[in-house]
Amino acid sequence: MFNSFLLDVIIGLVFFFLVYSLLASAINEIFSTLFADRARMLERGIEQMLDGKHFNYYWWDKAANIFLWLNKPAKEDCKRFFRSAKLKSGAKRAKLNKKARLFASQVINHPLYRRKSQESFLYKKPSYIESSTFADIMVDLLSCNKCTTTDLPVLMSDIRSQLFISKMNKNTRRILTLYLEQAHGDVTRFKLLLESWFNESMERVTGWYKRMTSGWVFLIGLTMAVSFNADTLQVVKTLSTKDEVRQLMLQKAAAMNARERDSADKYAVYKDVAAYRDSVAAVNQLLGVGWKGLQFKEEIKKPQKPAGWLLTALAIMMGAPFWFDLLNKLVNLRGTGTLSNQTQSNTAAQQLKKQQAKPDSSF
Length: 363
Prior knowledge:
- The chain is mainly alpha-helical.
- Helix content is 74%, strand content 0%.
- Among the domains are: 5-32 and 210-339, no CATH class; 55-101.
């Protein structure tokens, strides 16, 4: 049963989704690296953690600030425009001092934070910091930079006195006061509590980033589906009706699964975006996917069914790791399942011949 026709079609479809997901993920990773999405999300998470709010500030905001600084009348006109249009968020975005007044800005501008920066096209801030680094920064800030300006040890009394002087969110002050009480005068324990707080906050940030990435991957997948005319319904029809195509897809899927199993890195089967693109092109050619060259105008005039494109985009949004794992399970299931009827009959006939060839040992 496991070696059935339906399972073969499913494996071919999963392999199709996997190849497309790899290309979409690679494209998304390029843009994420280029625009430093992880670094922005980390900064947003720290601001939300310490101040309960955040302000997005991009390169175009810097350009707006420079323009408003050079042209003060335009600044007043801009304020009146946003006030009349009720676009307060737009007015806030163009003000760097809003972001600078956050308590989190002291963390983000700290040398320990800055030294972990990574080069990017428009953003030079770290995309990841250790929880121990965050704890060291907080202790240094709450002790009036005693860690970085003197050789004297930090005392809990220094932190407690500074805690009520610093301008910070009242909820943040309450959290830190609670941690001070739980530390019982031990700075090391206080740091461990700060690390635990940071790790819990970063779990939420990870969820934010995954949701953002899923949205972008869906848009990339939908663009790919329309560009390549990658209709899931048509792919299923092709796999169901063309035995040769189905067998070739099974071979490719099994080969990829073997490489992934033997490799320490499951993405080592491809090295760059060009390889992903070539794999998609090969699968498209095998399945007959695409706008058929000279017949493009005729094809575009036909009523298209966006349901197939939408299914492809939704499948791509599931991500390459999901399809990798599913492909591995299905290929293994097919390999360990029962034999087909024809194979079973052939095996039974061979066993019968062997029994007839053996001498009768009952005497």
